[in-house]
Design a protein that fits this description.
alpha+beta; four-stranded mixed sheet; three-stranded mixed sheet
């Protein structure tokens, strides 16, 4: 090679018999290293331009052949690549996305999600229904294939025609120049939105949309143990994607209304239950509400406030193992009476005296009743 000519193989660190894949791989590595968006050194711009120039020549079989014969001063190479015509750098990310596999059409298609064909609804149920399960009737409004055109969007007896803008391919090509040379991007055709065809004679019933509004009542089984925030998926009950014929789902979000007595903790049901001082002191039995009715529990003698009594198996069933159930946990509250009869007050006064209280300390009923509770440990 004559003096002053550039050795493009050497620029890319390749031998003269390098394959096209090796050329592309070497260029990718060096371009990432020296692109001015990434490398801020003073020499990076000139170095990047030389790397790009080498790749422009060696990546094209015609210019590579000319270079191998005549070197970098070949007029054909300069004319074909026009190195002097690129004055501005293109953004690093944008250039590499478009050059190394970027395809706006494929990206647009991959971004298409099911969000437009799925339907979200909320169902309110009672606390009791969340424990034992129930059936609910919900109304769903969706868009399904038009009864007249069956989703073709065309008036019966007519057919779509090929889009003139893209000749039926659904995509158009756009070229632009940068330091990497001339690039071609494949874009969705704006005329037909990537479908390749245009409907001229639109269906009169759906105005060319291909869908019509449908109302449907669905009977939904709500399993026992369901909790607020859980979602029941009703498959294929959503809108239709008229192009792919795919049906969306109905996502039914459960909202459990609060209960005045019961609360939930994991699969357990919690409840506060008041008992009087006498029952707390002597022990005995008490009736407490459960979701399915009432249940008798045993109160141990001398029970303290905030003691927990467990009723086994009266909680929520496990959603995945319904035979496994939580418990109902009863939190005992010892209640101070405030409407005693004279006879009851006298009985409690005697009790207080027998427990060592001074008579002058129990004149105030509320005070001595509280003292009795203190004596009982409550």
């Amino acid at each position: 090679m004559s003096v002053g000519q550039k050795n493009y193989y050497e620029v890319l660190g390749l031998s003269k018999d390098a394959s096209m894949e090796e050329i592309k791989k070497a260029f990718r590595k060096l371009a990432f290293e020296y692109h001015p968006d990434r490398n801020k050194t003073n020499a990076s711009e000139a170095r990047f331009k030389t790397i790009n120039e080498a790749y422009q020549v060696l990546s094209d079989p015609k210019t590579r052949s000319q270079y191998d014969q005549y070197g970098s001063d070949s007029p054909f190479i300069k004319q074909a690549n026009g190195f002097d015509g690129f004055g501005d750098f293109v953004g690093f990310g944008d250039v590499f996305d478009s050059f190394f596999g970027g395809n706006d059409l494929s990206k647009a298609k991959s971004r298409k999600s099911d969000s437009t064909i799925n339907i979200s609804k909320t169902l309110d149920i009672s606390f009791e229904e969340s424990v034992i399960g129930c059936e609910a009737n919900i109304r769903v409004v969706s868009f399904q294939a038009c009864n007249l055109c069956k989703g073709s969007k065309c008036q019966p007896g007519t057919s779509p025609v090929n889009c003139l803008d893209c000749s039926g391919s659904g995509e158009v090509k756009r070229s632009h120049k940068s330091f990497f040379g001339q690039f071609v991007q494949v874009m969705i055709c704006g005329g037909c939105q990537g479908k390749g065809v245009i409907v001229r004679d639109k269906c009169q019933e759906c105005s060319g949309k291909g869908t019509s509004r449908v109302e449907k009542d669905l009977l939904v089984n709500i399993p026992a143990g369901v909790n607020s925030g859980m979602v029941i998926k009703l498959k294929n009950e959503g809108h239709i994607d008229i192009d792919t014929k795919k049906l969306g789902n109905v996502d039914l979000k459960i909202k459990v209304n609060p209960h005045p007595t019961f609360t939930r903790s994991d699969n357990n049901i919690l409840i506060d239950h008041n008992i009087n001082v006498a029952l707390a002191a002597l022990g005995g039995k008490s009736i407490v509400p459960i979701v399915k009715g009432k249940r008798e529990i045993q109160i141990p003698r001398g029970i303290q406030s905030n003691t927990k009594v467990v009723i086994k198996g009266e909680g929520f069933p496990n959603l995945y193992k319904p035979n496994r159930k939580g418990d109902q946990i009863v939190n005992i509250k010892v209640e101070t009476p405030n409407n005693l009869t004279l006879e009851q007050q006298e009985l409690l006064r005697r009790l207080a005296l027998s427990m060592g209280e001074e008579s002058d300390c129990i004149k105030d009923g509320d005070t001595w009743i509280n003292k009795i509770k203190d004596k009982l440990g409550n």
